[in-house]
Amino acid sequence: MSASWSPAIDAESGVSYYVFAIGTNPAGDTTTRGNTRWWQVTYSTSMSVNVALDPAVTYYLSVYAVNGAGLSSAFATSNPVQPVWRALGAPTNVMSIAFSANGYDAGGAATAGWTSTQISTMTAFYTRMYPILVALYGPPADNYTVTAVRDLAYTRSNIFIPSTDEIRMSDSFSPQLFTHELIHAFRNDHILSSDSNWSYDPTLSGFEEGFAQAVSYEAMNAYVAAYPTDSIVAGNTLWGSSNDSNYDVQNVPEIRGTDFWSDGGGTGLYWLRYEMAAAAIRKINIESPGFYKAFNAEYYRRINASPTTLRSTRAVIVDIIKTLVPQIESTPAATWIDAQNIFYSQNVYGQKIFHKIQDYPTSQLYAFQSLYFMETMSCGSEWACWDGTKWVYHRLNGAAGTARLLDAEGSVVWSGPLQMTPTTNPAAGYMGFGSAIKSLTTASTLLPWPGGNTAEYVMNLSTLSLYTFETTFTDPLTNKSTSSSIRRVLGQPVTNSFGGVYGGVVGHRNGTIYLDHAGMPSEPGIPVVHGAFAGTRSWSGISNTRTGGRDSIPGRVSITFLDSDTGQTFSATRNVDYGSATGSQMFLFDFPPISDTTPPAVTIASPATAASISGSVAINANASDDAGVTRVEFRVDGSLIATDSAAPYGTTWNAEAAPLGLHSITAKAFDAAGNSSVYTVTPRVVDATAPVVRFTAPLTGALFATGAKVTLAATATDNRGATRVEFSVNGVLKATDKTSPYSWIWSVPSGRGITYTLRARAFDAAGLFSDSIISVKSK
């Protein structure tokens, strides 16, 4: 809402300022008059604020003046204001530009506006750039005019202010920075980094600044291609994110947060955030060309459908992206976005270590590194927070720490102490963040370049490897330690003269990696040694007349890595831009473990199917797995009888208690991933044990009179039970008894002195038998 009013008059002490508010009541006290937008001060006779208004509600602006004595005037109230929704992103919308006649010096005081020469330059640039932006970004959200204001406070950056429709910048006109702010201005009051009232909120800066930076680079490249002889922008300039080429190694947790400038600009973290955001948004557009424009169209469509309720939130942004681009780098869009630390959109409170590291290739490779030990405080800043009474500044200068450098095999190459200097913490005012310096290089000397102190380097890193630099610093006040690490490829030589492709594979030592760029011929694989690319091949690129070299081509790269140590194959996808200044790309792959879906192989060596078994049965199994067998379970008829966790795998089973007939014996082998396989045999349990029989009467050698009645008695036992006992005399079956106790009465035949052979034969159900034989004699 914008409004203006006639100046108040105070002949005695003059008018100092005005206070205004927006409410749904034209009368009442300050609370009722300001129930929509709180009271705030302005020193002019106009106001303009972003505020969420409901078209079904009537609003009123109330304002009062305050004089030099601090006395307030009566309220002045506007006529009723009825909001009318104006659809965003209409095809006919045009964003014009104007140039303020007034300017501001670095202290905020009024000064001269733009010169005619400056206006001429910016107008010429805008006239040519505007249609390029429309082609990339679609029509602006609103049909309006943005005003460029000369403000010498913005020497390091430009800024777009939605509430005043202004772009503020200094005299050092930067076409790219100006384009960056124009892209913000295209969304006007609906930039992604907004709160529920469409007021600026940095929480979603990862998305908003990422769009502005990525589109500005692409727009600048389109500009120089369309106007190669332009006097404003050099025709041989190639624009792109400075962290596209090493995105993998810079996607670190330290860039998480809600404010790009949380470090107050003191560490360079803000610049890493800008460039990582640009590279991430650019990756999405490479995945789906035309994404920038499609996103805005869908964003405006959703707001237009629900203007009073839909707001810019991370959930809304992610949903739009995944609707338009379901997969990014072969990963579901929402999962991919969550893996980009620049899109985290939350503060991570507590202490952290920021490795500010930059590769610089000459005849040797230098990785210049400054380390910052910082704390994200309760207000979200690492620089300073207001505790209600005073500013509380960062306090970790002087902290001591240790570091070590490990090669791909985990061996310590170097270790030593570090300290944050300066050691003094600020009590008030400005004092820079302390830092520790420990750079890495393949060189054995710092002469003739870059010079300096060898104590600030780890020198002579001639062995090609993927190195890990681990750091720990301790808070001198709490004695709490914080650790962090970063990876870098170094070695002599880093191949391709730094103008090709190099990189590393985390957690792997040796193999071959294939990098195939979409739309280009397949290229030979690159050996991987000590976790680092060891090939001599240059990165595919195109001759670039603007840079005079060959550059990485924007597009999709499919990666296949064959680990020669394990035989496993891994794959990934990367969307790349123009790479570094030399057209190179540095990759870092941290492949997730391959899911083990292959079950072990298992067989039962004995017993075999249909084999006859009895008594104590030995069960023996063979089991193997590429990742190792963890255990083998043995079951009989479905019941677990034993588990063996070490080869040779086996157990015993007492078959005596099992019913006769076929039985199921299984061996189930498991691996560490929980995969399993089963092998089954069905042997037959048989009775192999004959009964045991013994005469209890008469005794062998006994004498009996002829005609005597002699009781033959026997006992018979069997593991499964005796079924009968047969009594025989001299081999002739005389009687059968099926019930214990087993007996038969024998009449001794006539004739004295005759020897008789008596036999008791016991049978079981399987027909097995045994005998008990005695001899007696008649008298």
Automatic annotation (TrEMBL):
Enumerate the PROSITE patterns for this protein.
Answer: FN3 (PS50853)
InterPro entries found in the cross-reference section: FN3_dom, FN3_sf, Ig-like_fold
Domain (Fibronectin type-III): residue spans on this chain: 1-87
What is this protein's name? Unannotated protein
Q: In which organism is this protein found?
A: freshwater metagenome
